[in-house]
Structure formats: C-alpha cells, structure tokens
Amino acid sequence: MRILHFSDVHVEAPLSGVPLGELASKKLVGLTLLRLWRGRRFRGSAAKLDALARFMRAERVDVVVCTGDHTALGTEPELATARRALSPFESAPHGLVTLPGNHDIYLPGAVRDRRFERHFAELLESDLPEHCADGPWPLVRLVGDHLAVVAVNSARPNPQVWRSSGRISAAQLAALERVLADRRLGGRFVIVATHYAPRLANGRPDNFRHGLVDAERFLAVCRRIERGAVLHGHVHDCFHVRVPGMRAPLLGAGSCTDAGKEGLWLLELDGTDARATPGRFDGADFALRREASLRL
Prior knowledge:
Elements: E1 2-6, H1 26-41, H2 45-58, E2 63-66, H3 76-86, E3 96-98, H4 108-112, H5 115-119, E4 139-143, E5 147-151, H6 170-181, E6 189-193, H7 215-222, E7 228-232, E8 239-241, E9 250-252, E10 263-270, E11 273-281, E12 286-288, E13 294-295
Parallel strand pairs: 1-2, 2-3, 5-6, 6-7, 7-9
Antiparallel strand pairs: 1-10, 4-5, 8-9, 10-11, 11-12, 11-13
C-alpha cells in the first residue's frame, strides 16, 4: 500500500465576480500580500500539480491525502479551479482524501456558503458516518483491510489581521477518540490528517497567532494510535517530528507548489513494515529522497 501526502497547493484564479465586500479589512490585506509577494511564490502551481500527478502514476500510489490550503483566498473561482486541479488524484485506486486549510475559508462568504464542502462534496463521505460530529468531520476512509485514514478539520476563520491560528472543535476531538477506539480500525495502520501542525520542525508548538491552539489535546487523543502517522500541512517546510510518549510520528508535507520549498511524503506499507520517504521538486519532476527515508 502506497500513500501520497501533499499539501498547501494555493492555486490562483481570477477575482472577477468576487463581491467587493468580501475583500474588505483583513481580506484586502491578504489580497495585497498575495499580489505583491505570495503570488510570485506560487506561480507555476498548475505545472507542479501536473508533475505531481505524473509522480503519483509512476510510483503506483494507492491513495492520496491532501491536507488543505487548496487556494489563496477561498473564492468561488479559486475553489472551482482547485477542484479541477485535484481531479487527477482521484484516479488513484483508493481515491483522494482531503480537508480544508485556513486559506480555504479566508473570506467570510466561504464559511457562510460552505464553499469548500460544496465544491468537494463527493470527497467528504465517511465510511463511518455515525462518528461524524461537526459536519462531515471526522471523516473516516477504510482502505482495503490494512489502512484507515481519518481526517479532522482544524481550519477556522480568523477576523484579526495578525492571526491565522486553527482549532479542532471539542466535538471533533471527542469523536476522534471514539474513532480510534472503534474495533473496525483494529489492526490497521492509522493515518490521522489535519491542516495545522501540532509541532514545528524543532519539536516545539507553533505560536498562538499561527498554530493549532488545542494541539496538546489533539496529541493526547493521537497517543491512542498504536501504529500509524499524523499528517499535516500549514507550515511550508517538509519535515517530521517524534513527540515523546507518542508512537505515531508527525509528517509535515510543507507545500507542493511554494517555489524552492516543494515537498511531499510517500508512505509505504508492506506487512508489518512501514516507511515514509520525503520527496522534492527538481524543476521539472518530483523525486524521492530515499536517503532520508524513515521507519514508522
């Protein structure tokens, strides 16, 4: 079983047709940053996604996990573009599992209109719907007989200009605990995926302005994972962290399109053996860094 993990695609699309009211206050600041700085970093995202799809096919990936931030501002045109851009990854034998990032609900209309849920609706059906506690979350995908992917939503609106933090609702955390105790996950390799990083590359929590504010509660629940991994994005560096007292490592894919930082993880399950290998973009294609592979 092979699992491709990538994140933070940040596709761009024209802003024509977006109501001016949506681009006020913080949104106008974000738009300015996008045009002056972020836009330059994510040019070529379409070509990089094409290269990532080639990588997926060449590596015979079984299931794909994308941990959010499909867009820059969460506008209707961007979400429609992102949905089309990710469609090739649905061709993996066991499909695509995805969830929103903070940029996907950046505009107030995105939350009010449930834009992400509407554009990605067919990908948000859980195999264990009785555990859903906050919309479709946590979403559970049972893959074959040996893998379970559990997605939780940590993205939320941040009206303050200076804040982009995330939170997993108490209802989701309680449901996640029930999912991990469900006998139907027994004996499976368990992946828990969310957008925000519970830890930075140095092993420390992110700050309250940018990080997951309930990271400790989330990690306490994830300590129930006997064999698996926690996947995330948000921080645009590809890294892994071992948390003391926790069997499952944290694997941050970074961004697959941020110029000079493009990254991914390929997880490979073979019986009782499980490995994770980072990948990078060489300007034309994605390739694995086998020398940096780690045992899970």
